[in-house]
User: Fold this.
Amino acid sequence: MNYIKYNKNNKEVLLPIVVNFAALRKFQTQTKVQYNDIEAIIADLDLLENMFWYSLESGAKASGEQLKINREECEDVLNECFGDFIKIFMEDVVKIFTPAQSPAPEVAKKK
Assistant:
């Protein structure tokens, strides 16, 4: 779990954020852009803002917290922490597409 620091009304707010299956699925369903088209997402700021929102929703759910901002505040948050989100996005995407380090247990064959 990562957190984005946001200064809301002169008070620091920590926003839990995670790019995971749920965020990617919501993003793909709403935008009709394939979740694995990383270049398109990074190149289009509207798409990136959508991904940010769905990642905040997933982070809030995973942490058991309520969302601390509304959808309209995403631009304001990204004005402060755009680079932080890009870093989190890229790191989480790499984790999603990287197989587990330990090999999967072998499946027993029936004789």
Q: What stands out?
A: Residues 23 and 57 are 8 Å apart (CA to CA).
